[in-house]
Amino acid sequence: MPSKTRIIGSVVALSLVTQLTACGTLFFPDRRGQIEGRIDPLVAGLNAVGILFYVIPGLIAFGIDFATGAIYLPSDQYSVAPEKLREALGSDGRIDHARLKAILQQEIGLDLPLDDPRLIQHSGSIEQLAAYGLRAEA
């Protein structure tokens, strides 16, 4: 008969594994930062499995996916010509958010909330561009 600590350890390990696999943030990290959209049934289903087995961790998984935006499917429209996007760059290399918002609204017909506090902005470095074989241009 297995020892009590071995059973407890197995239950804890199983609960951690099920919660880690039920989180859309781990499966689709590129979706983080989306504000709204259609809910991905795969991610919602995996989170629901987490609720069936462990209510509190399952609800936490749903909360994380909604908070990060990883539960939403990507939109069908996302392409804008790079030449058009360069018009939103100022002479100092900074992005003019009002101009970018106008370009996106004109090109893809979406009124994106670029002033939303949940918007995640990433800043890169010259080394990161060089790693992808790109040059810094402003």
Structure at a glance:
52% of the residues lie in helices and 0% in strands. With 138 residues, it is an all-alpha fold. It comes from Aquipseudomonas alcaligenes (Pseudomonas alcaligenes).
List keywords for this structure.
mainly alpha; 138 residues; 7 helices; 2 domains
Total number of β-strand segments? 0
Give a quick account of the main beta sheet: strands, pairing sense, barrel closure: none
- The number of distinct helices, counting runs of at least 4 residues, comes to 7
Helix/strand/pairing category: mainly alpha
- Determine Rg (CA atoms, Å): 21 Å
**Ends distance:** 69 Å
Give the strand content: under 5%
Give a verbal description of the structure:
The chain has 138 residues and is mainly alpha-helical. It folds into two domains: 4-68, no CATH class; 82-129, no CATH class. 52% of the residues lie in helices and 0% in strands. Helix 1 (4-21) packs antiparallel against helix 3 (41-53) and helix 3 packs antiparallel against helix 4 (55-68). The longest helix is centred in the N-terminal third of the chain and has 18 residues, at 4-21. It is elongated and about 70 Å long. The model has no long low-confidence stretch (mean pLDDT 78).
